[in-house]
Amino acid sequence: MTAKVITVTSGKGGVGKTTTVANLAVALAADGKRVVCIDGDIGLRNLDVVMGLENRIVYDVVDVIEGRCRLRQAMIRDKRLPELFLIPAAQTRDKNAVSPSDMVRLCDELRPEVDWVLIDSPAGIERGFRNSIAAADKILIVTNPEMSAVRDADRVIGLLEAEEKAAPSLILNRLNMNMVRRGDMLSVDDVYDLLRIEVIGIVPEDENVVVASNRGAPLAMEGKSVAGQAFRHIARRLNGEEVPFMNFESVSLWDRLSKMAWRK
Fold first, then answer.
1. What 3 state SS string does the chain have?
2. Which of 56, 186, 215, 247 could potentially form a cystine with 145 if both were Cys, beta carbons 3.0 to 4.6 Å apart?
3. In the predicted model, what is the mean pLDDT of the chain?
Protein backbone atom coordinates (compact mmCIF):
# COMPACT_ATOMS: atom_id res chain seq x y z
CA MET A 1 0.00 0.00 0.00
CA THR A 2 1.00 3.61 -0.54
CA ALA A 3 -0.42 6.20 1.82
CA LYS A 4 -2.19 9.30 0.65
CA VAL A 5 -0.92 12.40 2.48
CA ILE A 6 -3.58 14.91 3.48
CA THR A 7 -2.70 18.28 5.00
CA VAL A 8 -5.40 20.08 6.99
CA THR A 9 -4.75 23.79 7.15
CA SER A 10 -6.39 27.18 7.66
CA GLY A 11 -5.52 30.83 7.30
CA LYS A 12 -6.89 31.75 10.73
CA GLY A 13 -6.30 30.08 14.08
CA GLY A 14 -9.13 28.74 16.20
CA VAL A 15 -11.35 27.48 13.38
CA GLY A 16 -11.22 23.82 14.50
CA LYS A 17 -8.39 22.52 12.36
CA THR A 18 -6.80 20.26 15.00
CA THR A 19 -10.20 18.90 16.02
CA THR A 20 -10.86 18.13 12.35
CA VAL A 21 -7.60 16.19 12.02
CA ALA A 22 -8.32 14.15 15.14
CA ASN A 23 -11.87 13.31 14.08
CA LEU A 24 -10.97 12.39 10.51
CA ALA A 25 -8.14 10.20 11.76
CA VAL A 26 -10.45 8.41 14.20
CA ALA A 27 -13.11 7.92 11.53
CA LEU A 28 -10.63 6.50 9.02
CA ALA A 29 -9.02 4.19 11.59
CA ALA A 30 -12.42 2.98 12.81
CA ASP A 31 -13.10 1.98 9.20
CA GLY A 32 -10.05 -0.30 9.29
CA LYS A 33 -7.53 2.04 7.69
CA ARG A 34 -4.01 2.41 9.05
CA VAL A 35 -3.57 6.10 9.86
CA VAL A 36 -0.68 8.25 11.10
CA CYS A 37 -1.26 11.83 12.27
CA ILE A 38 1.65 14.26 12.27
CA ASP A 39 1.38 17.39 14.39
CA GLY A 40 3.10 20.01 12.23
CA ASP A 41 2.63 22.86 14.71
CA ILE A 42 6.18 22.87 16.08
CA GLY A 43 6.34 24.68 19.42
CA LEU A 44 2.58 24.70 20.04
CA ARG A 45 1.44 21.10 19.95
CA ASN A 46 -2.21 20.38 20.69
CA LEU A 47 -3.13 17.31 18.65
CA ASP A 48 -1.86 14.97 21.38
CA VAL A 49 -4.31 16.50 23.89
CA VAL A 50 -7.31 16.31 21.55
CA MET A 51 -6.48 12.64 20.88
CA GLY A 52 -5.92 11.88 24.56
CA LEU A 53 -2.28 10.85 24.06
CA GLU A 54 -0.38 13.66 25.82
CA ASN A 55 0.91 11.39 28.61
CA ARG A 56 2.48 8.90 26.22
CA ILE A 57 4.94 11.20 24.45
CA VAL A 58 8.60 10.16 24.59
CA TYR A 59 9.89 11.31 21.19
CA ASP A 60 8.59 13.89 18.71
CA VAL A 61 8.85 14.72 15.02
CA VAL A 62 12.05 16.78 15.48
CA ASP A 63 13.69 13.83 17.27
CA VAL A 64 12.97 11.72 14.18
CA ILE A 65 14.25 14.33 11.74
CA GLU A 66 17.45 14.95 13.74
CA GLY A 67 18.13 11.22 14.15
CA ARG A 68 17.64 10.85 17.92
CA CYS A 69 15.11 8.07 17.41
CA ARG A 70 13.69 5.83 14.73
CA LEU A 71 10.36 6.72 13.13
CA ARG A 72 8.62 3.81 14.85
CA GLN A 73 9.78 5.00 18.27
CA ALA A 74 8.03 8.33 17.83
CA MET A 75 4.74 6.80 16.65
CA ILE A 76 2.30 6.69 19.59
CA ARG A 77 -0.42 4.08 19.18
CA ASP A 78 -3.93 5.24 20.05
CA LYS A 79 -5.44 3.67 23.19
CA ARG A 80 -8.70 2.66 21.50
CA LEU A 81 -7.86 2.17 17.82
CA PRO A 82 -4.80 -0.01 17.17
CA GLU A 83 -4.47 1.22 13.56
CA LEU A 84 -4.18 4.88 14.59
CA PHE A 85 -0.86 6.55 15.46
CA LEU A 86 0.37 10.03 16.35
CA ILE A 87 3.77 11.62 15.75
CA PRO A 88 3.69 14.66 18.08
CA ALA A 89 5.21 18.07 17.53
CA ALA A 90 8.18 19.30 19.53
CA GLN A 91 7.27 21.81 22.23
CA THR A 92 10.73 23.20 22.92
CA ARG A 93 11.77 23.97 19.33
CA ASP A 94 10.54 26.40 16.70
CA LYS A 95 9.32 25.82 13.16
CA ASN A 96 12.83 26.35 11.74
CA ALA A 97 13.83 22.97 13.21
CA VAL A 98 11.96 21.34 10.32
CA SER A 99 12.25 22.02 6.58
CA PRO A 100 9.86 21.16 3.74
CA SER A 101 12.32 18.52 2.47
CA ASP A 102 12.39 16.96 5.97
CA MET A 103 8.60 16.55 5.85
CA VAL A 104 8.76 15.04 2.38
CA ARG A 105 11.33 12.46 3.54
CA LEU A 106 9.30 11.64 6.65
CA CYS A 107 6.11 11.11 4.65
CA ASP A 108 7.94 9.07 2.01
CA GLU A 109 9.14 6.76 4.79
CA LEU A 110 5.56 6.39 6.05
CA ARG A 111 3.86 5.88 2.67
CA PRO A 112 4.59 2.12 2.30
CA GLU A 113 3.50 1.42 5.89
CA VAL A 114 0.06 3.06 6.19
CA ASP A 115 -3.07 4.03 4.25
CA TRP A 116 -3.33 7.67 5.32
CA VAL A 117 -1.00 10.35 6.68
CA LEU A 118 -2.86 13.35 8.12
CA ILE A 119 -0.79 16.47 8.81
CA ASP A 120 -2.08 19.12 11.20
CA SER A 121 -0.70 22.36 9.82
CA PRO A 122 -0.18 25.43 11.98
CA ALA A 123 -2.53 28.28 11.19
CA GLY A 124 -1.17 31.05 9.02
CA ILE A 125 1.20 31.15 6.09
CA GLU A 126 4.71 31.09 7.54
CA ARG A 127 7.42 28.40 7.61
CA GLY A 128 5.27 25.85 9.45
CA PHE A 129 2.60 26.10 6.75
CA ARG A 130 5.13 25.49 3.98
CA ASN A 131 6.53 22.50 5.90
CA SER A 132 3.08 21.00 6.27
CA ILE A 133 2.01 21.29 2.64
CA ALA A 134 5.32 20.09 1.13
CA ALA A 135 4.42 16.39 0.99
CA ALA A 136 0.66 16.76 0.59
CA ASP A 137 -1.23 14.90 -2.11
CA LYS A 138 -4.38 16.77 -1.12
CA ILE A 139 -5.04 19.83 1.05
CA LEU A 140 -8.17 20.47 3.08
CA ILE A 141 -8.84 24.04 4.18
CA VAL A 142 -10.93 24.49 7.34
CA THR A 143 -12.84 27.71 7.82
CA ASN A 144 -15.71 29.04 9.91
CA PRO A 145 -18.63 30.90 8.30
CA GLU A 146 -17.35 34.33 9.34
CA MET A 147 -15.82 36.91 7.04
CA SER A 148 -12.36 37.14 8.64
CA ALA A 149 -11.86 33.36 8.53
CA VAL A 150 -13.12 33.12 4.94
CA ARG A 151 -10.86 35.99 3.85
CA ASP A 152 -7.85 34.21 5.40
CA ALA A 153 -8.90 30.95 3.73
CA ASP A 154 -8.98 32.77 0.39
CA ARG A 155 -5.41 33.93 0.97
CA VAL A 156 -4.32 30.34 1.62
CA ILE A 157 -5.99 29.25 -1.63
CA GLY A 158 -3.93 31.87 -3.47
CA LEU A 159 -0.71 30.65 -1.85
CA LEU A 160 -1.47 27.05 -2.80
CA GLU A 161 -2.04 28.13 -6.39
CA ALA A 162 1.33 29.92 -6.33
CA GLU A 163 2.96 26.73 -5.01
CA GLU A 164 1.27 24.86 -7.89
CA LYS A 165 -0.48 22.51 -5.50
CA ALA A 166 -3.61 20.66 -6.60
CA ALA A 167 -6.85 22.51 -5.90
CA PRO A 168 -7.75 22.24 -2.21
CA SER A 169 -11.12 21.22 -0.81
CA LEU A 170 -13.10 23.02 1.87
CA ILE A 171 -14.46 21.97 5.25
CA LEU A 172 -16.89 24.50 6.65
CA ASN A 173 -16.85 24.11 10.43
CA ARG A 174 -19.22 25.36 13.16
CA LEU A 175 -22.19 26.20 10.97
CA ASN A 176 -25.04 27.55 13.12
CA MET A 177 -28.27 27.58 11.12
CA ASN A 178 -30.12 29.76 13.64
CA MET A 179 -27.50 32.47 13.19
CA VAL A 180 -27.61 32.04 9.41
CA ARG A 181 -31.38 32.51 9.39
CA ARG A 182 -31.04 35.68 11.47
CA GLY A 183 -28.44 37.02 9.07
CA ASP A 184 -25.73 36.93 11.76
CA MET A 185 -23.55 34.32 10.05
CA LEU A 186 -22.49 33.60 6.48
CA SER A 187 -24.46 30.81 4.82
CA VAL A 188 -22.83 27.88 3.04
CA ASP A 189 -23.92 29.51 -0.24
CA ASP A 190 -22.12 32.71 0.80
CA VAL A 191 -18.88 30.90 1.65
CA TYR A 192 -18.94 28.81 -1.50
CA ASP A 193 -19.56 31.88 -3.67
CA LEU A 194 -16.60 33.66 -2.02
CA LEU A 195 -14.08 30.80 -2.25
CA ARG A 196 -15.27 28.72 -5.22
CA ILE A 197 -13.51 25.52 -4.24
CA GLU A 198 -14.92 22.04 -3.84
CA VAL A 199 -16.74 21.48 -0.55
CA ILE A 200 -15.97 18.10 1.02
CA GLY A 201 -17.75 18.65 4.32
CA ILE A 202 -19.93 20.85 6.50
CA VAL A 203 -19.79 20.40 10.27
CA PRO A 204 -22.54 22.00 12.38
CA GLU A 205 -21.92 23.92 15.59
CA ASP A 206 -21.93 21.36 18.42
CA GLU A 207 -20.92 22.05 22.04
CA ASN A 208 -20.02 18.36 22.38
CA VAL A 209 -16.95 18.99 20.21
CA VAL A 210 -15.32 21.05 22.98
CA VAL A 211 -16.30 18.50 25.64
CA ALA A 212 -14.89 15.64 23.57
CA SER A 213 -11.65 17.52 22.86
CA ASN A 214 -11.13 18.20 26.56
CA ARG A 215 -11.65 14.51 27.28
CA GLY A 216 -9.25 13.41 24.53
CA ALA A 217 -12.00 11.38 22.86
CA PRO A 218 -12.90 12.76 19.40
CA LEU A 219 -16.62 12.74 18.60
CA ALA A 220 -16.19 10.56 15.52
CA MET A 221 -15.71 7.63 17.92
CA GLU A 222 -19.37 7.62 18.90
CA GLY A 223 -22.56 7.73 16.90
CA LYS A 224 -24.84 10.20 18.69
CA SER A 225 -23.37 13.57 17.75
CA VAL A 226 -24.37 15.25 14.49
CA ALA A 227 -20.89 16.81 14.27
CA GLY A 228 -19.32 13.38 14.77
CA GLN A 229 -21.48 12.03 11.97
CA ALA A 230 -20.41 14.92 9.72
CA PHE A 231 -16.72 14.09 10.32
CA ARG A 232 -17.39 10.42 9.54
CA HIS A 233 -19.06 11.46 6.29
CA ILE A 234 -15.98 13.50 5.31
CA ALA A 235 -13.76 10.47 6.01
CA ARG A 236 -15.97 8.33 3.77
CA ARG A 237 -15.70 10.91 0.99
CA LEU A 238 -11.91 10.83 1.36
CA ASN A 239 -12.18 7.07 0.80
CA GLY A 240 -13.99 7.69 -2.46
CA GLU A 241 -17.56 7.04 -1.36
CA GLU A 242 -20.46 9.17 -2.58
CA VAL A 243 -22.06 10.36 0.65
CA PRO A 244 -24.97 12.82 0.58
CA PHE A 245 -24.57 16.03 2.53
CA MET A 246 -26.75 16.46 5.60
CA ASN A 247 -29.37 19.06 4.69
CA PHE A 248 -28.77 22.01 7.00
CA GLU A 249 -29.77 24.66 4.51
CA SER A 250 -31.37 25.18 1.10
CA VAL A 251 -32.16 22.20 -1.12
CA SER A 252 -30.69 23.96 -4.14
CA LEU A 253 -27.27 24.28 -2.49
CA TRP A 254 -27.18 20.68 -1.34
CA ASP A 255 -28.08 19.56 -4.84
CA ARG A 256 -25.10 21.56 -6.09
CA LEU A 257 -22.79 20.10 -3.45
CA SER A 258 -23.97 16.56 -4.09
CA LYS A 259 -23.02 16.90 -7.75
CA MET A 260 -19.43 17.81 -6.91
CA ALA A 261 -17.35 14.72 -7.55
CA TRP A 262 -14.77 14.08 -4.84
CA ARG A 263 -11.71 12.45 -6.41
CA LYS A 264 -9.73 10.22 -4.09
1. CCCEEEEEECCCCCCCHHHHHHHHHHHHHHCCCCEEEEECCCCCCCHHHHCCCHHHCCCCHHHHHCCCCCHHHHCEECCCCCCEEEECCCCCCCHHHCCHHHHHHHHHHHCCCCCEEEEECCCCCCHHHHHHHCCCCEEEEEECCCHHHHHHHHHHHHHHHHCCCCCCEEEEEEECHHHHHHCCCCCHHHHHHHHCCCEEEEEECCCHHHHHHHHCCCHHHCCCCHHHHHHHHHHHHHCCCCCCCCCCCCHHHHHHHHCCCCCC
2. 186
3. 91
